[in-house]
Design a protein that fits this description.
Elements (H helix, E strand, L loop, with lengths): L2 H10 L16 H7 L3 H11 L4 H4 L5 E6 L11 H20 L2 E6 L5 H11 L5 E4 L6 H8 L7 E3 H21 L7 E5 L3 H10 L5 E6 L2 E2 L9 H6 L12 H4 L5 E4 L8 H4 L6 E5 L9 H6 L2 E6 L14 H10 L7 H13 L18 H13 L1
Parallel strand pairs: 1-2, 1-3, 3-4, 5-6, 5-8, 8-9, 9-10
Antiparallel strand pairs: 6-7
């Protein structure tokens, strides 16, 4: 049986991967009186008087909305709301399996930015947090920014979850390679959601960052940059170089790929410094395969795939980040929380090696340590 057949069989078994669960079984008339009418009216009146009590008397305390418009689904592109549903359902299954958080997939049948913002605002009272997912850039930046006043944490995981895990991997990779974080030259291929977030999180930790989009190096010489790419120039490309990805790679210590498959060859990696670190995370096919990167001299490689060492995947971050945010009743996810989460992840690997710079998805303590770090920062 091939992967397609196995996946279809897996999803058909229960018609999906998640379902609701009644925590207080209704077995008799007395239960019904408390769960529904007339007893539930007393709870509703309490929430009207004190909305904060929703965290005590409703699902709000432990429930996340996973929201998408299906415009940028990993590896599949713009497949729309229905096509994105199995992916969002999988995200919810991870929330529950790894962090004990109830999550529900909400796939909006619109790709209009203002309509998405309005829809999220309208459903927000039910949830303790909002996980935006697989929404294309630059629209995703506008949507996330517009929702920061909801009073509950709103995070676009493709941005911040990815950035947290990249930083965690880079912390340990630099140790193994014997390089100082501050002195690294980091080249980021991709100026969408993940690439922009990676650059933002590395700001202040790394002095030399260059970001590449589909037209080349983002520099002050270009007149085709949107507002988000212009913001990147405040702390990237300090030498104002221009050119292609291959030009940027000359003398680079780190390549972070969140862009497109098969854009690099072994000869391109040879342009980098010795003991080069290559995180090629395009899925399902990376920018360069690990064996090809190592032919070019890469010292440490990482991908987004589970069939190679060093899987750099946001599933290591988002369950713990949201758990910590929910438990601390944080109103926002801050950069300080993200940094704390990244260092917590890195510290879980006590003795990092070339093939082990990041925890595996089933390693013990991931959610607990990340959530504790987030909580300590939130408080």
């Amino acid at each position: 049986m091939d992967l397609k057949e196995e996946a279809l069989k897996y999803h058909a078994k229960h018609q999906g991967k998640i379902a609701t669960q009644v925590l207080t079984p209704i077995k008799n008339r007395a239960d019904l009186t408390l769960a529904y009418t007339p007893g539930v009216a007393e709870v509703s009146k309490v929430l009207v008087e004190d909305p904060d009590k929703a965290y005590k008397y409703s699902i709000k305390a432990h429930t996340i909305a996973v929201i998408t418009d299906g415009s940028a689904v990993l590896g599949l592109g713009n497949i729309g709301a229905l096509g994105a549903l199995p992916v969002m359902e999988g995200k919810c299954a991870i929330f529950k399996s790894f962090a004990g958080i109830d999550a529900f997939p909400i796939c909006l049948d619109t790709q209009d930015k203002d309509e998405i913002i309005k829809a999220v605002r309208q459903i927000a009272p039910v949830f303790g947090g909002i996980n935006l997912e697989d929404i294309g850039a630059p629209k995703c930046f506008d949507i996330e920014n517009a929702l920061q006043d909801l009073g509950i944490p709103v995070m676009h995981d493709d941005q911040h979850g990815t950035a947290v895990v990249v930083l965690a991997g880079l912390i340990n990779a630099a140790k193994v390679a014997g390089k100082e974080m501050k002195s690294l030259k980091v080249v980021i291929s991709g100026a969408g959601a993940a690439g922009t977030a990676c650059a933002n999180l590395l700001d202040g930790l790394v002095d030399d960052i260059i970001v590449i989009d589909s037209k080349g190096i983002i520099s002050k010489r270009r007149n085709d940059l949107d507002s988000y790419k212009k913001k990147l120039l405040k702390f990237t490309n300090s030498k104002n170089i221009s050119g292609s990805l291959l030009d940027a790679l000359i003398g680079a210590d780190v390549f972070v790929g969140v862009s497109a498959p098969n854009i690099l060859k072994a000869g391109d990696i040879e342009k980098m410094n010795q003991k080069a670190i290559v995180f090629a995370m395009a899925n399902p096919t990376p920018e360069i395969m690990p064996d090809e990167a190592k032919k070019g001299g890469a010292f440490i490689t990482g991908t987004g795939r589970s069939d190679f060492p060093n899987q750099i995947n946001n599933s290591l971050a988002f369950p713990g980040i949201f758990k910590g945010a929910l438990q601390s009743r944080a109103k926002k996810i801050t950069k300080e929380m993200e940094l704390a989460a990244a260092y917590a992840l890195a510290n879980l690997v006590k003795n990092p090696t070339v093939d082990k710079i990041i925890p595996g998805p089933f390693d013990k303590g991931i959610v607990e340590d990340v959530s504790k770090a987030v909580k300590s920062t939130a408080n």
